[in-house]
Amino acid sequence: MRDNIEAIRLAFRLGVAGRSAQNAEEREILRKYAGFGGLKCILNDANELADAAKWSKSDIELFAPTVELRRLIHDYSKDDKEFARYMDSLKASVLTAFYTDNRIVDALSDSLKYSGIEVKSFLEPSAGQGAFIDSFLRNDRYPGVEVLAYEKDLLTGKILSALHPSILTRIEGFEKIERDFNGYFDVAASNVPFGDFAVADPAYAVSKEIAYRQATKTIHNYFFLKALDQVREGGLVAFIASQGVMNAASPFVRMELVKRADLVAALRLPNNTFSDNAGTDAGSDLIILQKHTGKKALSADEEFFIQSVVDRGTKVPGNKFFQAFPQNVICTDAKVGTDQYGKPAIVYYHDDGVDGIADNLRKALDETLHLRLNLELYNSNGVKPPTPDPVTPAHKQEVKAEAPKAEKKSSLTNTPLMQQYQEMKKKHPDAVLLFRVGDFYEIFGKDAVTASEILGITLTRRANGKDNFIELAGFPHHALDTYLPKLVRAGQRVAICEQLEDPKLKKTPTQKVVTTVTPNHPPKTEPKVEPKTEPKESTIPVEALKAETKEIETDGSPDYNDNPDPRLFAYNLFGELEPIGKPKRQPRHSEDAPKPKPSVAVKDIPVQKFRPLSEKELEFYGSLNWEDNPPINGFYETMMSIAHRQMEEMRLEKEAQEAANAETVIEGNAVIHKTEGEFIPDRQPRVATPKPEKVERDMSSRPFSEDIQFFHHNGSMVVQDGMVGFLSEVRKNGATFTPLNLKPEQEKRTMLYVTLSETYQQLYSYEAETLEPSEHLREHLNQYYDEFVAKYGNLNEKQNVKFILMDANGRDALALERGENGQFVKADIFDHPVSFSLDKVTSVDTPLEALTASLNKYGEVNLEYMSSLVDMDEDAMVENLAGHIYYNPLVSNYEIKDRFIAGNVVAKAEAVKAWIDREEERIKGFPGYDGIEPFIAMSQDSLKALEEARPRRIEFDELDFNFGERWIPTGIYSAYMSHLYETEIKIAYSSSMDEYSADAPHKNMKIWEEFCVKGYYRVYDGMSLLKHALHNTIPDIKKSIGKDEDGHDIKVPDNEAIQLANAKIDEIRNGFSEWLEAQSPEFKERLVDLYNNKFNCFVRPQYDGSHQTFPDLNMKILGDRYGISSIYQSQKDCIWMLKQNGGGICDHEVGTGKTLIICIAAHEMKRLGLAHKPMIIGLKANVAEIAMTYQSAYPNARILFADEKSFKADNRVNFFNQIKNNDYDCVIMSHDQFGKIPQSPEMQQQILQAELDTVEENLEVVKQQGHDISRGMLKGLIKRKENLTAKIATIQYQMEQNKDAVVDFKQMGIDHIFVDESHQFKNLMFNTRHDRVAGLGNSEGSQRALNLLYAIRTIQERTGKDLGATFLSGTTISNSLTELYLLFKYLRPNELERQDIRCFDAWAAIFAKKTTDFEFNVTNNIVAKERFRYFIKVPELAAFYNEITDYRTAEDVGVDRPEKREILHNIPPTPAQEAFIEKLMEFAKTCDATILGRAPLSETEEKAKMLIATDYARKMALDMRMIDPEYGDDPNNKASHCARMIAEYYRKYDAQCGTQFVFSDLSTYKPGEWNVYSEIKRKLIEDYGIPAHEIRFIQECKTERSRKAVIQAMNDGDVRVLFGSTSMLGTGVNAQRRCVTIHHCDTPWRPSDLTQRDGRGIRAGNEIAKLYADNKVDVIIYAVEKSLDSYKFNLLHCKATFIDQLKSGALGARTIDEGAMDEKNGMNFSEYMAILSGNTDLLEKAKLEKRIASLESERKAHNKGISDSKFRYQTITHDIANNEAAIERMKADVARYEAVVRRDKDGNPLNNLIIDTCNLSDEKNMGIHLQGLAQRTDTHGQYKRIGEVYGFPISIISERTLVDGKESIQNRFVVEGNYKYKFNNGFIAMSDTHAACMNFVNALEKIPGIIAQYEERTAKLKVDVPQLEAIISKPWGKEDELKGLKSDLAALDRKITAALAPKKEEQDGEEAKHSDSVQLIDSPSQTSGTKESMVAEPRQTYPMVTNGLRSSYRSG
After folding, report:
1. At what angle do helices 1180-1193 and 1115-1122 cross, to 10 degrees?
2. Running DSSP on this structure, what letter comes out for residue 563?
3. Is residue 564 pLDDT above 60, yes or no?
4. Would you state the pLDDT for residue 313?
5. How far apart are CA 1785 and CA 1791, in angstroms?
6. Higher pLDDT residue, 737 or 1708?
7. Beta strands 1422-1431 and 1408-1416, pairing class
8. Which of 712-726, 1176-1190, 1293-1307 is predicted with the least confidence, judged by mean pLDDT?
9. Residues near 795 by beta carbon (within 8 Å), at least 6 away in sequence
């Protein structure tokens, strides 16, 4: 520990000095650093001495060094953040960092060196202080070696950098290494981190290989696989690692290791290897691997290495390798014990310590390296030595040196490409010049004309200069062999020019050698510089080389002479183990043996041979092929490949024999050499040779020589060197090419396909990025496609699909065709660009259409353009558009009305008026100066229109202010708080962090006492509570209720303190409004202006779409299919709004025609160019209907509809490409299908990064607030941060990969999304500090909503504007107004930013009020329940919503649909229900779950007990069999009542086949299980005789087809009763034609769900209700008395009313109360008990009791605070009295002293000392005497007189003390007056006798100073007295409210008692029944005198049915 601290101290000092370690002493100090692996004690608190009590006895000796370490790091840290980073890094290393002794490392490095390993590049992935680097590099054994070292720990990294300044050090995790280092290093060696710690490497985390995914969870495994990636072929990985690598039960990582590398060594090290250096015992292994990716089989060693074993008896894990090779375990002793984690393990020990371990290690390494190291593979870098070409006769080449000529001016454009062409053409003017450009040979000018005629290729023209064109033709480079002979046969001289680099990327053009082919002449080659070769190498005979190589030839296998198990096995080609021969020992090179030179080594790498197949086998397996006779399994596939290979060899041999007789073919006058493959001009010219040898095609993998393109991926099919192959290991700067062995015809087909595919990729990418068409590439694409189809058929034909899908880009290519009418046709990209629009509007019919076109093209009113479209001058255009456009002087142009008279009209009007005033002032006195008057006049008209549209000003009295609203200036908050606290308060706000800070330079008793809460652990003063008040949060105060078994405090919430804090915070917040009321009128006016200008400034335009004609809309088909005769005006208005705004919200009620709005709006946007490629997404149940409606409305429209088949895994990518490559009018799919579209990684990263920034800001705020915030919130934020960080890392990785592998949303070109039923996406992520507030939902959000946000942000980023999407739903707000924020987050991010709203908390601070109810729970404890219950400033909130929304109800639209008649069917509880209700009430009281017949509540269930109780009550109300199947049927239960009502309606409308819907979300249909659906159906069949086939459950419909069939049967009357849940039947079911009744067996949680349910029958097209039921549909709600049914239903009605009023702007109030019950928390205890009791008066009583209890608890907390203040007041007044008395006494002593003291001329006192025991009076002797008294006296703690001075006695007192562990005595001297006075704390000077004697006079001289201190302290105390008196006398402000509530409670008690008393008139059943009826009508809750609440008592009247009799009932 000490060495570590000194090393860290030195590293910090070196860092400050800016230098590295420069001398041996410094380096030695740094090298002693051993890390903190295993020292878990440093994780303990060690900030102060008190923390030592928390340390264990075994660690206490390290406490002091740990404190020193922390202080050292803190002192050298720049700030707290850096200190925290150091400590976090240090803590992380404790569990993973164990440093290695240099003797162990030296043994490894020496053994490798002696084995012949030379290192040029070295990797240390976990360097520590650099032990491995020191060892490998010592004595300069590898001069010039490159070293890259990684070290994650910040402190260790500093030491590493100081020790090794010359190497590249990265202080970060190894996972950060760049991919460019893959395959770079010779050796990687390290002691890698231990432990099951996850590593954030997205590439591994998403890998298809299980080994890589597992490796990210265990850091030691990860380092092995990652290091193998980094070393080159043949390179070594030598790691000391945890035994977990070899002992782990899962073999996948080890399998992957030996699959990619040869096992060189595996040695088990003893547990005491690290004892000396790291102070810990841990088992470890040394594993050395040699990278060998081309290996064909595993050795027996590697087989053993893979297999882990577990001893049955001891349960100790191990590895079979060490069982086979026990000599590889280095130890002297072994025994069964436990590892550092306490698990069974064998503990190995070496008696000779590290020296002995190192010696044994050297020996073992020498042996295993000699046996298994493949030095040849290492030295060859894994590259197969090249085989020299066969020697051929050299042909004399004509070399013609041309003198440089002056460049002539050319008419061609001087682009780099054309410059190259011109230069080459000058050299070969008489030849047809083939010019290589990318993958094509291009031919220009006259050559192109000639070539196109001869070759039959397409001739095109390309732009050349401003007005010139040049002819152009071309063909793919691999087709040269086809076209070159044709040109030669035609008598043309051909010159071929290869291009080295793309001229776009290189300014200086460079060409390869030009090869010319002339009729009747061999090819000529332009001169090129050949590299010089050594003649010795070129003259060595091949035979000699082979002989020399043969001497050292080996198969690379290890020598198994020492293997104890002679049975050796290896994997064969089929993955089966088969015995292999005993391999030979690998010979070692002698020092003087001649080494073969790499440039001439010709040894062939052995390839495993297979026996030749017999003729029968050859005939059978050779007949297999992929086209029409494919292999049936892997074995047949393998045999097929062997057969084809053997047949190909036989064919080649046959051709070789024939080639001797016919080597050349003479055609005309040209000599053409026959050759295979591609003609490549830059190689040796092809000439006719008499006897060419057979050319073996090199099928080995090799580097890819072409540039890596964006469309190249792992698995991409490419052409290189005339061969087709695949790419692997694709990186930015290179890849590996693996050739395919294809038949010639297959190869030609594949080459043509590759060219076609690459051309498509280049075309789409170019057009998508530049937004410009490329006709040149499109022409090529058509040419190659036509050629391919002509030769091989369509791409999607069966024989082509299989081989195309072998290509990674194959699915893209298959999407180049689409099916139409049973045939494949070209995709649109063959004809025109699909990534952007080319259409241009040239003419329109009306000025309004011209206006729309102008807005589309220019984004503004362009009169010149508009006039050209309608042939009308600009003045006439303005006149025609009067009222539609206004002149806006701010932009010097006209703006459309819906844009000008919209938005923030207040700010706009002020700016226009300022412009008018400025211009009028400018031209005053100069009329007509510059013609500005007409514009001023037009601007005045515009200003008038703006002022008329301005919203009514909201006055101060109407406003409700929240303390902490972000828009209110902080100066106002500062002034208020300074007034409240009576001292200066400064408040500041940080918008980036959404954080308030507060400071009080001079704190007082208001802060320390009045607004202070004292918790068990800390005090929350007024400043702390002020910050909570500003953020509307509550401190999480804890207290201790004892100690746990470890002695730690058991912390629980201190609810009493929390309630007191909440009361004080409320006092601060509520007092703000009162303070504002007291301000001056001028102040209020300014504040109101600020509010109105910020929020009350929005105007929603009155969109009038009546002028629209909708060209192409087919009303006839709509009328025939859907009965639609015209478009509603509401639909026209909404469509016009969407067209003008570019999107918005269509908030139309169910049945008002939203589907048609979607279709028409999408088509209109496409027609007018407002959207290029719109997309509609809807519910799975609706989307087919949307597509059908669209097709009916626009029969000629091109629609892409995604059915289920389209989104199957095999077809999905193809479907995405169809969207990308075609120009559809609209794309339609379901929500679920949309969620499967990959979103743009860049957009995902951007949004998630913004969320992460917000989380980090909140985290920083939380940390600053410290213990004020709940631990749950802190943990939640940390977890959220980690999740977001991991997501971003994964997305970043995907972006770095070839992102175009799959088409993402951004590439599809979708630029507008219509989201039907948009409320399905309301669960969007958001960040908030209000972690304990109920009803906010999951802030993490859903992936579905996040995907939609990505898509919308992608569109918004493209347009730079809000919206970009259209939301359509009848329930945009489904449950709470908080959902409004998420709507705005989707659609209006920029506008929220303008209002200073950057997060949910900022929005809630303005528009929401949080309530905190304190109530008693079942254990009689007070608990807090927070929620956003009240919403304020509702009209402004509504205006912000309505600005982009078109809200219409069915009544607004005039939809001809039935009315809703709600009937509350009241059901008395059955006897079983009555009994269970009693049990429920007892359960709610006692929390004893066994009462309900279930197991006791778990700890988690305890927290949700009221939710459990609420759930039980819901189930009980529906049917008792949901509680327990043992309960039987009851004729009076809800199922029986429902069945009876269904049967009544069934009979009533039997003639009309009336249908009914039955809804229940509880107990839905499940085959084989009891459920309410089946029970009601049984009763309908058995009791009422309704046919079974007329009763159906929607859950029975498993497919879309069956679902449609049931809906159709409902409309036809064949199905009469349909059961379902809200989710399955509530949306997407248009079965309303015969609906007469809707039954609600239960009540859903959200108003929107109830609306959706009712909408199944209450919608247009209900014929039976209209004709036979007075156009009404009965909606029956079944409610069991004494259950939650009625209460829940009333609550829903209230919420629905508020939401409707907000949307319509009809809300009179500015505040809304949402109520306090939801599905996440259930009901509160009091209300639950009251409702179950069945007496609604008891509910009112419960509410009163809850409020009274809360107030009494608050009063108790207030009184406690007053009591504390009284005690403080008494203490202060007592201190003042004591101080004043002391001052008087000290003043008396001063007077007495001054009366007798003698002074010298300077005023200094003279000494008048008398010592009783000293006869001498001189100072020196008296001083010596005093010093002697101080040393020898012992008064045993008593004061003893020794003398006097000026009449004041002097005394001495002895005190005992400990010095160095020994007891000693120290004496003090005092002067006694009214008090005892000291100087120098009573100690006399021991070295100065004069000073010793003057000690007592000096003590008396100090008295006046002491008096001054007392007087100052007393004055300060007196200042606090008035404030404390005011606090003590301050009454509790809610006493009157509490008295009133108690009075109301007493009155209610009397009423309840009277109601329960027996009544004399209840003598017979009839009167009793009458009495019950009266009681139902006059609900007691309605007659109480309490204040009305819309939540508890909604004013609605329902008909009621009881026992089949209908009566009037008013719900309470």
Report:
1. 140
2. -
3. no
4. 76
5. 10
6. 737
7. antiparallel
8. 1293-1307
9. 788, 789, 801, 804, 813, 814, 816, 817, 824
